[in-house]
Amino acid sequence: MLELRSELFSALSETRNENIGALLSAKKEGKKVIGHYCAYSPVELALAAGAIAVPLCGNKKEPFLAADNDLPPNLCPIIRSSYDLAVSDTCPFFHASDMIVAETTCDGKKKMYEILQRIKPIHVMNLPQIPDLPMSITLWKSEVRRLKTAIEKELGVKITDEALREAIHVTNEEARARKELFDLNRNKPALLSGKDLLVIVAQAGYSIDRMSGVALIDRLTEEIKKKAQQGYHVGNEKTPRILLTGTPLGENDDKVVSLVEEYGGLVVAMEICGGYKSLDLRIDETDCRDPILLLAEKQVGIPCSVMSPNKKRIQLLERMIHDFAVDGVVDLTWHGCHTYNIESYWVADLVKNKLEKPFLHLTTDFSDADRETMRVRIEAFLEMI
């Protein structure tokens, strides 16, 4: 399976590593850093406060030696990994953060945050989980405003509406650029492998200069379009086109993607966090209402499995299956992630019963202990297509 090779893609692949030095330099110059764990953390507030907003590490290979001292072994590997990297001081972004923003997306995470607060103060946002109720917007708006107050106090700044609208423009541009890059795989044959997509998912959020990151993605998109005009593509017309949905993953968690592509399939789309999940949720910059309300409305619309009912995820998946000409769907759940594990019922119902396409639900962790079992199941799945 071909993977994209270009100087621009190499630059994107090194975004995280390259920006560690830039982050430390900015810290020395007095710049503040706000770390966040989830798409529900409104990074616009950090940007409007003049801070650097960085996603925090949550993906490393086992063993989680530091986490195993404090956390139960049957927790989701993302929770254990996030905790392990923080307490072992091996995540430079956590280390550099002056303030951590977290959220109650699951019981495991919110209880882990209680223990993690021994190391560094964490501001936990209370997330409403019934998306269609008016009171959910009201509650989340109050939580966004509470975070605004906390950031202003911690950083000694005043967040103005003007600065917040400028930050909204930046995050809109990031979502627009990433979506245009991911949408290249609507082409048949595709233009990006699943491994390429994983690099983009894992790296795109780490640009210290966020508009420079947008420009890099835009240039890469144009470069791939030009390559396509010269005959470049990944796979061929007959390669099974797979959509990956489910729990978040990063470059270190490539077991399933690698196996799909080793055995003849191609992951052309990822609905996961960091992938396609929230790229359509861009704020109308001409909307003159309170920008705090605009942020609240956008984020409550994120189709995460923590929301109940989560109809928007099913609607998004159906649209993606059509737009990306998907032949089959793999639903990936990490051990211990109950919301995604149970919601797989509705994903299977959509894929198998309504759309009549092959469906595979995999439950695993970050280790390679079950790689052979995964290989057998994925190979059989691909043979169905």
How is this structure best described in words?
By secondary structure, the protein is an alpha/beta fold. The chain has two domains: 142 residues, Rossmann fold (3-Layer(aba) Sandwich), CATH 3.40.50; 196 residues, Rossmann fold (3-Layer(aba) Sandwich). It is built from 16 helices and eight strands. It has a four-stranded parallel beta sheet with strand order 2-1-3-4, sandwiched between helices. Helix 1 packs antiparallel against helix 11. The radius of gyration is 20 Å and the shape is globular. It starts with 6 loop residues before the first helix and ends with a helix. The model has no long low-confidence stretch (mean pLDDT 94).
Query: Helical proportion?
Result: 40-55%
Uncertain segments are none
Any idea of the CATH class of the largest domain?
Alpha Beta
> CATH topology of the largest domain, anyone?
Rossmann fold
Q: Supply the number of helical segments.
A: 16
Largest sheet properties: 4 strands, parallel
Mean pLDDT metric = 94
> What is the string of SSEs from the N terminus onward?
HHEHEHHHEHEHHHHEHEHHEHEH
The structural class is alpha/beta
Shape: globular
Q: Termini distance? A: 18 Å
| Order of neighbouring strands in the sheet with most strands | 2-1-3-4
In terms of DSSP E residues, the strand content is: 5-15%
- Count of separate structural domains: 2
Gyration radius, to the nearest Å? 20 Å
How many beta strands in the DSSP annotation? 8
Q: Per CATH, which architecture of the largest domain?
A: 3-Layer(aba) Sandwich
